[in-house]
């Protein structure tokens, strides 16, 4: 009998993991594209323009709620699935050759997911709660040259602290390992794998896993070092 739990059988949990994972991947693409606007190096005008759109568009604001729910489901589902898999194999062999069957990051998805979740909590506390006027204020940062709320100035303030920059870089490093396994696994879990295009999926997944976290990590580093102003 299939094991039942938060989302039904173990197979159902894998489908949930895949679907929520792919949804979160689409969010990463959009978020990375908007944040990359800081590299126009125009005092944040272009970045603030798109950040303002993201913050005031009703559809986007609604999707934020869906995104947060999807993130929670993804993390909880991963923890439950990992616990069930371990319970199904209660005996640990003294000389088990784990590397023969999988890489370390594929066996550590739950831990990497928790680290990413903690990083996101820090990120939301620094940015989202202020820009959505939940706590704190954007008033100290004024407006940019176009008269828009200056989220770019907030970024400059947050990323002026070395410890914060280190936390963000480590979070992006965890994201890299998580995506390296999760991207391809999502397609496999949904049955969207075939020897004809498995190579393409692996290549795209590896490229995505490198480019997106690297882009995210380059933002705080560039602002801290003064490369972006």
Description:
- This protein is mainly α and 229 residues long.
- It has one domain: 3 helical TM bundles of succinate and fumarate reductases (Up-down Bundle).
- It is 68% helix and 0% strand.
- It is built from seven helices and no strands.
- The relative contact order is 0.14.
- The N terminus is likely disordered.
Instruction: Please report the number of helical segments.
Output: 7
Shape, per Cα inertia axes: elongated
Kindly report the CATH topology: 3 helical TM bundles of succinate and fumarate reductases
| Count of DSSP strands | 0
Query: Taking all residues together, what is the mean pLDDT?
Result: 79
Going by CATH, the architecture would be: Up-down Bundle
Oligomer classification: single chain
Order of helices and strands: HHHHHHH
CATH class: Mainly Alpha
Our estimate of the beta-strand percent is under 5%
Helix content: 55-70%
* Low-confidence region ranges: 1-6
The whole-angstrom Rg is 20 Å
- CATH homologous superfamily annotation: Fumarate reductase/succinate dehydrogenase, transmembrane subunit
The tally of domains stands at: 1
Question: CA-to-CA gap between the ends?
Answer: 60 Å
Summary tags:
disordered N terminus, 7 helices, 3 helical TM bundles of succinate and fumarate reductases, mainly alpha, 229 residues
Give me the secondary-structure topology.
Blueprint (H helix, E strand, L loop, with lengths): L9 H26 L9 H12 L1 H31 L20 H23 L19 H8 L3 H28 L8 H27 L5
Helix pairs in contact: 1-3, 1-6, 1-7, 3-4, 4-6, 6-7
């Amino acid at each position: 009998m299939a094991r039942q739990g938060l989302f039904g059988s173990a197979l159902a949990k894998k489908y949930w993991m895949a679907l929520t994972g792919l949804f979160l991947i689409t969010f990463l693409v959009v978020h990375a594209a908007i944040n990359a606007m800081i590299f126009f190096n125009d005092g944040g005008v272009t970045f603030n323009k798109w950040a303002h759109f993201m913050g005031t568009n009703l559809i986007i604001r609604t999707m934020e709620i869906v995104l947060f729910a999807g993130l929670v489901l993804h993390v909880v589902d991963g923890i439950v699935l990992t616990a069930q898999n371990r319970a199904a194999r209660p005996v640990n062999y003294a000389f088990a050759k784990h590397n023969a069957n999988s890489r370390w990051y594929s066996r550590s998805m739950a831990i990497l997911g928790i680290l990413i979740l903690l990083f996101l909590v820090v990120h939301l506390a620094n940015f989202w709660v202020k820009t959505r006027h939940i706590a704190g204020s954007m008033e100290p940062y004024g407006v940019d040259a176009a008269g828009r709320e200056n989220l770019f100035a907030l970024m400059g303030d947050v990323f002026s602290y070395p410890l914060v920059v280190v936390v963000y870089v480590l979070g992006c490093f965890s994201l890299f390992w998580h995506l390296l396994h999760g991207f391809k696994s999502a397609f496999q879990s949904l049955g969207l794998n075939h020897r004809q295009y498995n190579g393409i999926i692996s290549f795209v997944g590896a490229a995505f896993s490198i480019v997106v976290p690297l882009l995210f990590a380059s933002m705080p580093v560039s602002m801290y070092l003064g490369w972006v102003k």
